[in-house]
Design goal:
The complex is a heterodimer.
Chain A lengths: L5 H22 L13 H28 L2 H33 L8 H14 L1 H6 L4 H29 L7 H6 L4 H42 L16
Chain B lengths: L2 H20 L3 H19 L6 H22 L2 H6 L1 H7 L5 H30 L6 H26 L5 H27 L10 H27 L2
Classes of the chains: A mainly alpha, B mainly alpha.
Chain lengths: ~240, ~230
């Protein structure tokens, strides 16, 4: 039942990614300072924005779960955070590549956005061992939701604290993206952002569908009283 | 007194009395911090500290010592059935959160009353910064107690109790440590304390306390359901 609309959504995602990649490589002008390497900006920044929004969305789903006590929302929250953590790995890797190419170091501590992102990522990475350590399924879902709400409140506060810890004001990529960026670059960036957001949505929907299908198979097996083949993941919530 | 306030006072008094009788957490926390200072003395190969090194050593030590106490905060409730008693009692469950935060703040202040003077004797040339440091200590303790109580109450019901508290609490405490070390560094600088951005760091600490106090208060109910 989660599979409905998955095919058109996937096709739209592929088309959007193809469009934004062609814009990135054939339409957007080369950056005067950084040249070709600046094009990683069209992947790195949308990934980071979508991952952060995904963490917040996971927190909102967690609130819905706590309010309604419906396990569906816990599954939504889990999958949102799960996909965002995967995106987070990509953000850190692309950020490191960009830093190496433009500043000469794999990691720079005076880029507040990257450092904040690392801290947020480290916090959300503990979501899995945290969830895994709680055996009772209802309690696991509730505690995971509490974690998601707390971590959601943590994200903006952390960005503020890290930004303040910077002794001198670092030039911000995004300030130039908003103001001084030529129209072609802005258009390309917005297309990439839409493509990555679609990719996130598709992956979330895909994982929910897969979980729902395996949950149904398990229930049917139990109904047939046949031994289940291969244990399912003990961390992931079941979807009905 | 309202029932909530009576319950708050009763739980807090119970916690403090049992800590005074058993001395399970506080001596261990104090001993741990003194040993950590000694390790830093050799690890950094310094006999006196100032500025960012001093504030870093002080806060890293206090944070790790606090983790020891936070780990044990709900152990008695778990082992002796205190959670069931709270569930049965006709009181607001957030009272348990408030009482535990208060108990933890008192533990942390007691720890700092021992650890900070020893730190000053060991490393500081000039103790003038210790007066305003009290404000930083109190505000940081409040934030650490709010998040610590929340994490501890969840971790105690899991299989990996001792593992989860440091694992989840340390990333959560990063903004707190940024603000605390930011405020402490100029206080302990060589040549007397200065107050560079002291107020704005205190504001960040206060904001952290407020946000996580409210979050803890709002979600704690869900942690006690069974």
């Amino acid at each position: 039942m989660y599979g409905k609309g998955l095919r058109p959504l996937s096709i739209a995602t592929v088309a959007m990614i193809a469009l934004s990649l062609s814009l990135v490589f054939f339409y957007a002008p080369l950056d005067a300072d950084q040249g070709f390497i600046q094009k990683i900006f069209y992947i790195h920044v949308p990934l980071a924005m979508v991952a952060l929004v995904g963490f917040i969305v996971g927190g909102v789903f967690a609130i819905a779960h706590l309010r309604t006590d419906n396990r569906k929302w816990d599954a939504y929250s889990y999958v949102s955070i799960h996909i965002s953590v995967i995106f987070g790995v990509a953000v850190l890797i692309t950020g490191a590549i960009w830093a190496k190419a433009s500043w000469g170091h794999w990691w720079v501590w005076d880029e507040p956005t990257l450092v904040s992102f690392l801290i947020v990522f480290l916090l959300y990475a503990t979501y899995y061992p945290f969830r895994y350590a709680i055996e009772d399924r209802d309690r696991q879902a509730r505690y995971a939701s509490v974690f998601a709400v707390t971590a959601g409140a943590f994200v903006p506060l952390n960005f503020m604290a890290v930004r303040m810890a910077q002794s001198l004001v670092h030039p911000r990529t995004f300030a130039t993206a908003d103001g001084g960026l030529p129209g072609e670059m802005m258009l390309t960036f917005l297309c990439s952002l839409a493509a990555i957001a679609l990719l996130w949505t598709t992956l979330v929907k895909f994982e929910l569908t897969a979980k729902s299908a395996s949950g149904q198979v398990k229930r049917l097996r139990r109904a047939l009283d046949a031994p289940a083949s291969g244990g399912s993941s003990r961390i992931a919530p079941e979807v009905s | 007194m309202t029932p909530s306030r009576t319950a708050f006072a009763a739980i807090l008094a119970k916690d403090l009395r049992s800590e005074l009788r058993t001395l399970q957490s506080l001596p261990a926390m104090a001993l741990f911090s003194v040993t950590t200072f000694v390790i830093f003395r050799f690890g950094l190969d310094r006999t006196s500290l100032s500025g960012s090194l001093a504030s870093g050593v002080l806060w890293a030590t206090l944070l790790f010592a606090a983790v020891l106490g936070i780990n044990r905060l709900f152990v008695a409730e778990r082992e002796e059935g205190g959670f069931d008693a709270i569930r049965l009692a006709p009181i607001d469950r957030s009272v348990l959160f408030a009482a535990k935060v208060a108990a933890l703040v008192i533990y942390l202040l007691a720890l700092e009353m021992v650890a900070v003077p020893i730190f000053a004797v060991f490393f500081l040339d000039d103790a003038a910064g210790l007066g305003p440091l009290v404000a930083v200590l109190v505000l940081t303790d409040l934030g650490l107690a709010a998040t610590g109580t929340l994490i501890s109450s969840m971790a105690v019901n899991s299989r990996a109790r001792d593992l989860l508290v440091p694992l989840v609490l340390l990333p959560l405490a990063v903004p707190l440590m940024i603000a605390a070390t930011g405020a402490t560094e100029p206080l302990l600088s060589l040549g007397g304390p200065s107050y560079h951005r002291f107020g704005s760091w205190l504001l960040v600490l206060g904001l952290y306390d407020l946000i996580f106090g409210l979050v803890g208060y709002a979600v704690f109910d869900f942690l006690l359901e069974d």
